[in-house]
Amino acid sequence: MASPAHHFNKPSADIILISSDDVEFRVHRIILAEASTFFETLFALPQPASTQFSGAGEQTANHTDPNGLPVINVTETSAVLESLLRLCYPIRDPVLTDITVIRGILEAAVKYDMDEAKELMRKRLLGLASAEPLRVYAIACLHALEDVALAAAKEVLQQKLQSSYVEEMEEITAGDYSRLMGYSPQKGKRKKPYSFSRISMTPAASEASTESAPIEPSDAPHPFNLPNADAILCSSNAVNFRVHRMILAMASPVLEEKLAHTSLFTGDGSEAPQETNAGQTGLPIVYLPESSRTILVLLQIYYPFNDPELNDTQDIITILTVAEKYGMKKAVRSLKALAMSTLDMKSEPLQAYLIAIRLGMREQAIVAARYTLERVDLNKYSTNMEEVSAGSYYRLLQYRRHCVEAACNAVRDWGLENPVSNEYCHNSRSWIKSGCWETLVQTEFIAALAEIPVGLAVITGAAASAMKRLDSSAACSSCRSSRDLLVQTSAVYLTLSKAVDEKVLQVNLEWK
Description:
Layout: E1 15-18, E2 24-27, H1 29-35, H2 37-44, E3 52-53, E4 59-61, E5 71-73, H3 78-88, H4 99-111, H5 115-127, H6 133-142, H7 146-158, H8 174-181, H9 198-201, E6 218-219, E7 231-234, E8 239-243, H10 245-251, H11 253-262, E9 276-278, E10 284-287, H12 292-302, H13 313-325, H14 329-341, H15 349-358, H16 362-372, H17 390-417, E11 424-425, E12 430-431, H18 436-451, H19 456-471, H20 477-481, H21 483-488, H22 490-505
Parallel strand pairs: 1-5, 3-5, 6-8, 7-10
Antiparallel strand pairs: 1-2, 3-4, 7-8, 9-10, 11-12
């Protein structure tokens, strides 16, 4: 046990907190109870004379310290715990400048229901919005502190930090980041408040209790109603699936474990655990929280009968989540492949990328990222953004920026290495390769590639625009006369297009 180097070592203490780095804090129940409704509730519960508590308030062992004081082990570091306790005790408040510590105190204050500490940390984050706006924004989104997020968003815009990265972006959603990218001061002045955090945008669950009528049990369709089954899976809507334990054991280690526990309660009339029971048929029953449709699809993957009929991507992902929950590896593989097959990467590349990231499918994410280059706007909101990290979305935007840079550099390099003619440019007093033609065409190409950094169509479209400019007074007479050669030489555009694509293909999508 580390020696305490703080004020919380009074002999009058009646309880001990031990930090995650093994520092002991001797504190007083009455002060903790006043500051925290969590501790107030915990201390109101009857406890044995010798009890040790976890940070969640559960009894973990029949141990005390040598003086008989109860012990609570918490997950906070000693730095965070000391600062949190200083905010509770009538002593000098801590000097807080480290945003990591401030975040830790805020999270501990939320965990232990310490309203005063939460408010103090909110104000401290506001004070750091100009110094570390992106980190403050991410922390604010994680805790639905909309006023803090707004202040940080304004600083991000003012300091032009939209393309910057902080580690906290791996914790917030791409939706949170998209709302930051889409924010402007004008939006903040609308009658309806502009929200940043997904948490604050999610409607609160109604506290009103609604009692639904009992559901009459029913049998599942063939082949999950056969009499030779030796177990039953009961769905949330009371549909009974008669199944075979051997198949379930091979399909899911989780269901195998559940069925193993049911064997102790089969047909002997004893009380079953909460999630299992023995039905009137004497077969063990496992009650599952999923709907009958989800269970049917998963069983169809493993039984040698009809394959499941699925064509909705979100529906497939919902069932895939259940398959992952039950450790059903074959179902996970099949549903991942099916989910990606329902997507048109060319027409919806951003959606395909987000879903591939969500499913951990790297190769598909890379292909989808490539297709996003053919679209101008990657800031269009999608509900799938709420299922992946802001870091993943940031890496897609960075990939696009690097591709644009590579494409534009390819045009510049190509212009220097591939003179079109030996005509003399009167404006620049040089040969055509470095004359006003080159400047005009490069300007058009680079402007086009900054929007869509791929493809022959982009090159030819930009070339057509450049030809119009060559007809204008912007070009000298020699350069204007060379336009006929350019129009007739389609190979010029093809060569340049290939040069651009080769450079872009060398850009890698970062994966984390």
